[in-house]
Amino acid sequence: MTNKKLNEMLNLHGKTAVITGGAGYLGTAIAETFVELGARVILASRDLAKCRSRCQQLEEFSGVQGSALPFELNVMEEDSVNAFLHAVREAVGEIDILVNNAWSGNKNSWESITQKDWEYDIDMSLNSVFRMTKSFFPDLVARRGVILNIASMYGHIGPDYRIYDGKEFANPPSYGAAKAGVIQFTRYLASFLSPHGIRVNALSPGAFPHPATQQHAAFMEKLSSKNPLNRIGQPEELKGAVALLCTDAGSYITGQNICVDGGWAIW
Q1: pTM of the model
Q2: Mean of the per-residue pLDDT values of the chain
Q3: Can you tell me whether residue 183 is helix, strand or coil?
Q4: Residue 244 and residue 151: Cα distance in Å, rounded?
Q5: In 10 A of CB 57, how many CB atoms?
């Protein structure tokens, strides 16, 4: 017989998780996963009001007061990251789990993207992962913690130009380049942080378009047809992978990029 039952391994009671972009479309599902498993979550965003509202919803969802705490953070500014680190330590002490999920950016085609757009996207999607990981490294060492980096299917496959007409829904070249960097950085960290007992994995969703994009039927039909399941993903469909990678159920998994993409990448 094994030493632990699955429900014991899928347990985060007593753990604290930081989620950048935690009040967003996918960040909310990630946060729900943690509170369902008993963790306390720190939601970090530039929009503090949105964070506060989402934390209230998460407390109602979990039925546990104090299960979600809102903090202001701009992952693109080192001073903001440092201030956030100190605020979190004062409020809850060391953290156990870091989820690098924050993203914002503009739609751009190859023709429309500028140098400024490119640099913004690389800073937001890749450099921010470095900043956050470097800042919380001492906590993760002390707690033998877990890092989950939210990448994208476009970090390991190329977008099909035939489904992106014009700029409105275009996937910018900077996005995939940055996410590919996140996947490789994940592998690097998994190797060099392993002596500290830290596990590091990436999760690549696709396609999970925002609700506003879902209103455009013609584009959604083309997008959905790109994978064997012939549909888009829903945020709650990330929960299983998040739970696996961030609990003891995945204690022997590190350096991996888990694709939740409806089978998009198999053909």
Answers
A1: 0.96
A2: 96
A3: helix
A4: 16
A5: 15
